[in-house]
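[Q] Does anyone have a clean structure-token version of this?
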Amino acid sequence: MDRIIHRFNSPEEFLHHIENIKEPIRNSDYSRSDGWVDTDSLSEAICKAKTGDPEVAKLISPKDVELASCGNASRTCFDVAGDYVDIGRYLTGEPECMGTTKKTGKPIINIMINASILSDISSESIQERGRAVLEIMSGLETNGYNVEITLVFSIENNMHTVYLKIKDSKDYFNLHSLAFWLTSSSVNRRLKFRLIEGCKGAKKITGGYGASSDLSKAELDSMPDCIYFPRLKDNNGGYKIAIAEVLENYKQQ
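[A] Here you go.
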């Protein structure tokens, strides 16, 4: 089975897609009282995705981050016509596979955050890691960079990879919206579940929809200008080491 690639250029596009899925709702709307997911229903998760999370946003303090040679003053736009072919997009059948590089006013930093999580990761750990990453993003924007943020969900067994851009470099830094997308367990356990429920060939595997994984070296090599934060792997604060390693590595580039 070939890996299926999903690309969404905004939260609005993603939410519109899952709200129009016709297949029966299953795991995405399960009711649980053990804190495994931080909303009571799929509809509540969709509502919060649209309005954001002001309570978490209040807790965010921008972190002053120093990155050597950070960012660039150009951005790549994709369309059906352009200056060159993006081979990755072409091979996955993406119509908008032609790239054009455009100059911008401020340096742009492309951030990719692996939002895939295993079933034993707690909602508290998801929120803690999300807040830590969001404080870095907020600090970069405060220091004059345009940050572009993409969530990636890499799903083994079912062979799906989802790319969801939650902030374009030219977008306003909406702290309430980003607080939800980066810290809520419902992003994975309701919204992503609903996406997979609407995919042909996706199947329920041992009570879920496939195991999470990090991107392969080949996938990362195809995005050399991207700062990549790997998936959350434990409930013991391991994300702090992972984030520190990512930032240190980028300083040395």
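[Q] Thanks! Anything notable?
[A] Strands lie at 4-8, 72-79, 84-85, 98-114, 146-155, 160-167, 226-229.
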